[in-house]
């Protein structure tokens, strides 16, 4: 039931239902109209046959006055003298309209429906009454079955003689709307359903392609533009999307160029300022000023790294996560940090090696900076590949776990750039992770401390377990 609701909530499902209902109504309406036309044609032909029999019998009586009594006693095909006292019903206007166009006395005939006993009274008298609980034969219960009818006809011959005749029509079956073959209806509904689903998929495919492109754009701004194909409206949407992508690329390039220019232009004055600070006689003041200058230089460098992380054109390659993490852990341990690699998963993914090195180096450095101890492990569950960098530090408040990824947000309350950084490290780390299709988030450990989690979904490009190609 959940899958059905999910399908009906999608555009494919909604288009499918709309098309199915519309096409089904149109098909059923067309079938009903065609059946109605066939039924009308059948009834017209049946009335013509009845009129032919009546016309032939009346012409025979009109042309043979001396044999009239004898012919009336014998009767003709479905035509005979009307029994006295016959009960008449409504006029049969349809048959009278047909008779009006016929030559001879029948054109002046008046026709009424009558009880069937008026047509074949002797047969009715011979039939025994039905037993209690009698049910009609199945054929007589068929909606496509037309029971026999009896008509009373008043016709004046050319010599002025008025004849009262009984005209019966036998039971017939016709292809009425309720007599449509159920197999035909089943095949019709199935064909309509298949066609509606195909049309719905074709109509929603461009939107799905556009949605997938929008999701990919967040990970790879340099992805190939959307192809311009399909209906005119779809091509316009693709053109607008490609134009947006081009503007974002240009904006990012301009930002990177601006930051690079600022960094380059600041190098000389910052170096000159550093030299001049060495001449400050007050040692305490000199150290504070040099610290502020170093913070300025770090801020510029991190800002430039943030811009480059979003624009990087580094190509993906088969990367052994275990080997990469072991190398980073060894480097951190050689630098004096208490860092241990607890275990890998033998996973090889298509990633950007330099970007991943910066990402995990950043996370390990943060763990060592705030907790002096870090533990790194790789997990593989349900197809997802997860890298966890855990520390035993103080952790974070729940409301800060997401806020720390915003630019220039520093959880460390001191003003020291040496311990708190510029507030761009985690922002850069998340940008690097998302560009390679991973998610990065923080969570507190139950036993104390913090975990930085980088996870690739099951759809990640896995090359081969334990071996880089």
Automatic annotation (TrEMBL):
Residues 261-460 form the Histidine kinase domain. PROSITE patterns: HAMP, HIS_KIN. CDD domains: HAMP, HisKA. It is found in: Cell inner membrane. It is a multi-pass membrane protein. One of its GO terms (molecular function) is ATP binding. The chain crosses the membrane at residues 12-34. It catalyses: ATP + protein L-histidine = ADP + protein N-phospho-L-histidine. Its EC number is 2.7.13.3. Keywords: ATP-binding, Cell inner membrane, Cell membrane, Kinase, Membrane, Nucleotide-binding, Phosphoprotein, Transferase, Transmembrane, Transmembrane helix, Two-component regulatory system. Residues 201-253 form the HAMP domain. Gene3D superfamilies: 1.10.287.130, Histidine kinase-like ATPase, C-terminal domain. It is an enzyme of class 2 (transferase). GO terms for cellular component: plasma membrane. Its main location: membrane. This is histidine kinase.
């Amino acid at each position: 039931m959940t899958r059905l609701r999910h399908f009906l909530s999608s555009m494919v499902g909604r288009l499918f239902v709309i098309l199915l209902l519309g096409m089904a109504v149109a098909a059923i309406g067309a079938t009903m109209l065609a059946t109605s036309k066939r039924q009308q044609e059948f009834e017209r032909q049946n009335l013509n046959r009845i009129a032919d029999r009546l016309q032939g019998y009346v012409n025979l009586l009109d042309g043979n006055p001396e044999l009239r009594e004898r012919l009336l006693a014998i009767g003709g095909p479905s035509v005979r003298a009307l029994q006295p006292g016959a009960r008449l019903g409504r006029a049969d206007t349809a048959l009278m309209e047909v008779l009006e166009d016929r030559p001879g006395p029948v054109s002046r005939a008046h026709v009424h429906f009558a009880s069937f006993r008026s047509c074949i009274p002797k047969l009715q008298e011979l039939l025994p009454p039905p037993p209690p609980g009698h049910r009609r034969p199945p054929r007589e219960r068929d909606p496509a079955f037309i029971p026999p009818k009896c008509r009373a006809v008043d016709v004046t011959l050319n010599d002025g003689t008025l004849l009262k005749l009984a005209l019966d029509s036998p039971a017939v079956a016709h292809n009425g709307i309720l007599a449509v073959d159920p197999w035909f209806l089943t095949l019709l509904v199935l064909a309509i359903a298949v066609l509606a689903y195909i049309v719905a998929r074709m109509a929603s495919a461009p939107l799905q392609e556009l949605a997938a492109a929008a999701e990919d754009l967040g990970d790879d701004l340099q992805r190939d533009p959307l192809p311009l194909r399909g209906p005119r409206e779809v091509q316009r949407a693709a053109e607008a999307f490609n134009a947006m992508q081009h503007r974002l690329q240009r904006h990012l390039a301009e930002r990177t160029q601006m930051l690079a220019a600022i960094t380059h232009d600041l190098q000389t004055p910052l170096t000159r300022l550093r030299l001049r600070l060495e001449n400050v006689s007050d040692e305490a003041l000199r150290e504070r000023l040099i610290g502020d200058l170093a913070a300025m230089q770090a801020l510029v460098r991190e800002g430039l790294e943030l811009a480059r992380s979003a624009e990087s054109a580094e190509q993906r390659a088969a990367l052994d996560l275990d080997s990469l993490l072991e190398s980073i852990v060894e480097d951190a341990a050689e630098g004096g940090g208490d860092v241990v690699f607890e275990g890998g998963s033998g996973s090889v993914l298509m990633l950007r090696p330099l970007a991943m090195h910066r990402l995990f180096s950043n996370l390990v450095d943060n763990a060592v900076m705030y907790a002096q101890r870090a533990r790194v492990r790789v997990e593989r569950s349900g197809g997802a590949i997860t890298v966890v960098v855990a520390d035993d530090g103080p952790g974070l408040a729940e409301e800060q776990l997401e806020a720390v990824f915003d630019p220039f947000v520093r959880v460390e309350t001191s003003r020291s750039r040496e311990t708190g950084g510029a507030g761009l490290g985690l922002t850069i780390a998340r940008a690097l992770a998302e560009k390679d299709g991973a998610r990065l988030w923080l969570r507190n450990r139950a036993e104390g401390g913090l975990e930085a989690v980088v996870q690739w979904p099951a759809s990640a490009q896995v090359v081969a377990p334990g071996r880089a190609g």
